[in-house]
Specification:
CATH architecture of the largest domain: 3-Layer(aba) Sandwich
Distance between the termini: 41 Å
CATH superfamily of the largest domain: Response regulator
Strand order of the largest sheet: 2-1-3-4-5
Structural class: alpha/beta
Largest sheet: 5 strands, parallel
CATH topology of the largest domain: Rossmann fold
Oligomer: single chain
Length: 243
């Protein structure tokens, strides 16, 4: 398995410094942030394997940040710390598929158990990653490569804008999920925290993307949002053989 990276987001720098060397015993690289917004920017930049973050942070709290990340990333291992055992936070945290919810002051033994659990899960994912789908057939001539975020038609790359790539990447994370207008807007505006929500921008973006892909590849679910609708790869191969 590749060398692991960890993102540690904690607004108390003194607390953060206590655990840095300990964390480096489990991963090769530790990235540091002291608020939720910077933490999210570093997540997008480095795509760490493990995230250790506090609930109470300035600019973007830990639960909101974890929820934002979980919209598109089901594999990153998230460990949350908090100074308060609040029941409502515990219930919200359960929905985010966390490795562990740790109360402060952080016990080194408990943190070690959480890190080992996260690493074990990453090893399991790594062993089974060959079964994941990275190539999507939109018709017999159009292919979307999720891993490289490139679209090809008749073996020629189709140029996509940044937001078109983000839209296709989001939709192709789960073919069975209907992504709401807010889900999509939140994803395409991920590097602009101050941008006001606008469903019409989502509609306009989908309309532009449909000019570059088969229209039925993105289905409008009335009153809900949009769902990705690629062709089964076996059916795509059959269509290709007929041409």
């Amino acid at each position: 398995m590749k060398p692991l990276t960890l993102l540690y987001i904690e607004d108390d720098i003194d607390i953060q410094e206590i655990y840095i060397e300990f964390l480096k015993e489990f991963v090769e690289t530790v990235h540091l942030a002291n608020d939720g917004e910077v933490g999210y920017e570093l997540y997008l930049l480095h795509k760490p394997d493990i995230i250790l973050l506090d609930i109470n942070m300035p600019k973007l709290d830990g639960l909101s940040l974890a929820k934002k990340i979980r919209q598109t990333d089901k594999e990153v291992q998230i460990i949350i710390t908090t100074a308060h055992a609040e029941q409502d936070n515990l219930l919200k945290a359960i929905e985010l598929y966390l490795v562990k919810y740790i109360l402060k002051p952080i016990d080194f033994k408990e943190l070690k158990e959480a890190l080992n659990k996260a690493i074990s899960e990453l090893e399991y994912i790594s062993d089974n990653e060959s079964t994941e789908r990275d190539v999507f057939c939109l018709d017999s001539n159009t292919l979307w490569y999720r891993d490289t975020e490139k679209l090809y038609s008749h073996n020629v790359e189709v140029k996509l804008t940044k937001n078109e790539r983000r839209l296709l990447s989001l939709l192709s994370t789960d073919e069975n999920k209907v992504f709401t207008f807010f889900d999509i807007f939140n994803h395409i505006a991920q590097d602009n925290f101050n941008k006001d929500y606008d469903a019409n921008q989502v509609r306009a973006l989908v309309k532009l993307l449909r000019k570059k892909i088969p229209k039925e590849s993105v289905i409008n679910i009335y009153g809900e949002g949009y769902r990705f609708n690629p062709i089964n790869i076996e059916d795509c191969q059959k269509l290709d053989s007929l041409e």
